[in-house]
Amino acid sequence: MHINFVIPCLLGLERPIADELLVMEAENVQCENGRVLFEGNENMLARANICSRFAERIQVLVGTFSAHSFDELFEGTKALPWEHWVGKTDAFPVKGYSLDSELFSVSDCQSIIKKAVVERLKQTHKLPWFEETGALYQIQFSIMKNQVSLLIDTSGAGLHKRGYRPVANAAPLKETLSAALCQFARLRDFHTLYDPMCGSGTILIEGAMLANNIAPGLHRNFTAELWRQVPPGIWKEERERAKSLEKTETYFRAIGSDIDPKSLAIAKENVKRAGLEHIISFKKRDIADFSPETEKGTVIINPPYGERLLDLDAAHEIYKTMGKVLTAKRGWSYYIITADDDFEKHFGKKADKRRKLYNGMLKCQLYMYFK
Questions:
Q1: pTM above 0.90, yes or no
Q2: Which of 5, 31, 75, 324 would staple 14 via disulfide (CB 3.0–4.6 Å)?
Q3: Which helix (H) or strand (E) holds 6?
């Protein structure tokens, strides 16, 4: 079966997602603002869910059309082949959003799309009503500048939920963004990764998974596993494929430290759940006492900042301390993500490169020091 897919993503992660899809052998990969489009078959549906590090979720694109009125929305929706996906007993709730469009009432759009899908399915399945007790086909709509995209979610819980982090400390980075930081740092399987403000350990875990090519979705379930369009054998096949691509013998090590013993306890539990105790270790230590144990290293930090845990003055003091201990030397690189535009001033050095990213709705900068 040939399927059109859409991946909604955090702004700034479009290119890494496109690159990983190309490695997965997806077809016709295209980047757009805040999303990536690609094509493939049922194997690709399973593969993208299991293997994508940076995507928020994998959606089937049922169709797109222009709508300036509720009549156009109804007719455009009804014209799409919903019966190819939704069976006689399947559940098909509707949710979505509208931006910069004449149809701005989300609840009205939701209701009209639902009615249109029901009418289409009544005609094709020859049923007067639908019990919706079967597999879930969550319909998502996106209306932007009067352009409607209608999609079906394949993932269920967001793909950032890998399964190793049921508890996190305050204001963590999403797993998808943490993985992207490691990608931007060009982390490799012979590197040593340091996070001296490691919190719940997410950067360290995602770094270890990236460096050792461990698929992030290997140990979780997805909504589409109950779909009749994707035989169970495909999920088994794709999990085995992902497992076969893991690197089992590498020189990679990760070392985390934090001043908060509660955060370290959570981080150790998360590492244990991820099965990475053999390559990730921890120490209770203040950032001021950061002292590397290796000749070379990659340091990635998500320090607290004003909007997050500390007032700005306290955050700026931490940046000054970081500037003193993270010194430029051969074989070392430093990557710091923060929403504070004055970071460089307090850190004391201009970054060699900067990259704009979003942590949820919060605009951040990744400051990169590698020279």
A1: yes
A2: 31
A3: strand 3-8
The structure tokens 């993985």 sit at: 179
**Contact status, residue 322 vs residue 336, Cβ threshold 8 Å:** yes
pLDDT band at residue 171 under the 50/70/90 scheme: low
| Predicted local confidence at residue 206, as pLDDT | 98
Phi and psi at residue 265, in whole multiples of 5°? -65, -40
**Which H or E element spans position 192?**
strand 192-195
Q: Token pair of 350, please?
A: 């201009």
pLDDT at 29: 98
What one-character-per-residue DSSP string does 300-338 give? EE----TTTTS-HHHHHHHHHHHHHHS---TTEEEEEEE
Determine which helix (DSSP H) or strand (DSSP E) holds 236, and give its type and residue range.
helix 232-244
Q: Indicate the burial class of 99 (C-beta count within 10 angstroms; 0-12, 13-18, 19 or more).
A: exposed
Condensed to tens digits (0 to 9), the pLDDT of residues 64-105 reads 999 999 999 999 999 999 999 999 999 999 999 999 999 999
Q: How many helices (H) and strands (E) does the chain have?
A: 10, 14
For residue 186, give every residue at least 6 positions away whose Cβ sits within 8 Å of its Cβ, in sequence order, or none.
none
Fold of 3-153: VC0802-like (3.30.2130)
Question: What is the third-level CATH fold of 175-212+248-369?
Answer: Rossmann fold (3.40.50)
Query: Residues 305, 347: contact at Cβ < 8 Å?
Result: no
Question: What residue ranges do the domains of the chain occupy?
Answer: 3-153, 175-212+248-369
Q: What pLDDT is recorded for position 165?
A: 87
Query: Nearest Cα to 185, choosing from 111, 254, 101?
Result: 254
Specify the 3-state DSSP secondary structure of 369: strand
CATH topology of 3-153 equal to that of 175-212+248-369?
no
| pLDDT cut 90: percent of the chain above it | 91
User: What end-to-end distance do the CA atoms of the chain give, in Å?
Assistant: 49
For 328-350, the pLDDT digits (tens) are 999 999 999 999 999 999 999 99
